[in-house]
């Protein structure tokens, strides 16, 4: 066995197995390259035969102004471009190591600055909400504020990209939506060539949203940071809220701001470590 340390973390119950491939901290792989294949990521994410998580996170060396590079794998082994809750978790680890109150997390979707706030909260700048049909992306040109999609009693979503594709449905009663039943078909709708994260939103008032998520490659999760960003942006675009809103998910609340000056979305929420352990990667599927 070649032991590889890991840390199990979560943001509002959206949970992650975090591996460190930088070779610079206690929780690292001693400088080794970690052979994380899609099959191996799926095995680690399995909640019965692995550790179990919504996403597998690998911290890699940061370069050119970034403190760390964060690679994200879904439970099906596919790679994701953004994960807001994981961004805060990784930022808290880097800040603890370096003493910095502000760190920059690099992803395949871009750089995400994160700063520590009082009360154990972390605010992540998730970047600019991208609203063009090519940005989401969609299969053909159309207005992203109204998509011609319907399934299981929900219809007319708005779409945007937060470094990954999102479609947001607005519903009168969130409890009446069969998220698990209709989520897979919506994720794989032909309009989404890269599949999509599907959000279902009930507007409680102009400053408060309630959100349930079907995540691309992960299924139902207790929270989704980028999904909360998309919900806040699309609700404001529809004129249902202002640019500051609280988003309540099954795992807890996130505070959102869609900044008017530059179109960036700021997300504030907590992080937590559940436990640490070691993995034997050689015992997992290659």
Give a structural overview.
Helix content is 16%, strand content 41%. It is an alpha+beta fold. The chain folds into 2 domains: 3-116 and 271-283, Diaminopimelate Epimerase, Chain A, domain 1, CATH 3.10.310; 130-262, Diaminopimelate Epimerase, Chain A, domain 1 (Roll). The protein has a 17-stranded mixed beta sheet that branches. The protein is globular, with a radius of gyration of 18 Å. The mean pLDDT is 94.
Features:
single chain; 286 residues; alpha+beta; Diaminopimelate Epimerase, Chain A, domain 1; 17-stranded mixed β-sheet; two-stranded antiparallel sheet
Task: Summarize the structure in short.
With 286 residues, this protein is an alpha+beta fold.
The backbone outline, from C-alpha atoms, is globular
Characterize the largest beta sheet: strand count, sense, and whether it forms a barrel: 17 strands, mixed
What helical percentage do the residues reach?
10-25%
Radius of gyration: 18 Å
Indicate the CATH topology of the largest domain. Diaminopimelate Epimerase, Chain A, domain 1
Overall CATH architecture of the largest domain: Roll
CATH class of the largest domain: Alpha Beta
Number of domains: 2
End-to-end Cα distance: 15 Å
Q: What low-confidence regions span 5 or more consecutive residues with pLDDT below 50?
A: none
Quickly count the helices. 4
Give the strand tally. Answer: 19
Classified in CATH, the superfamily of the largest domain is: Diaminopimelate Epimerase, Chain A, domain 1
Strand and helix order: EEHEEEHEEEEEEEHEEEHEEEE
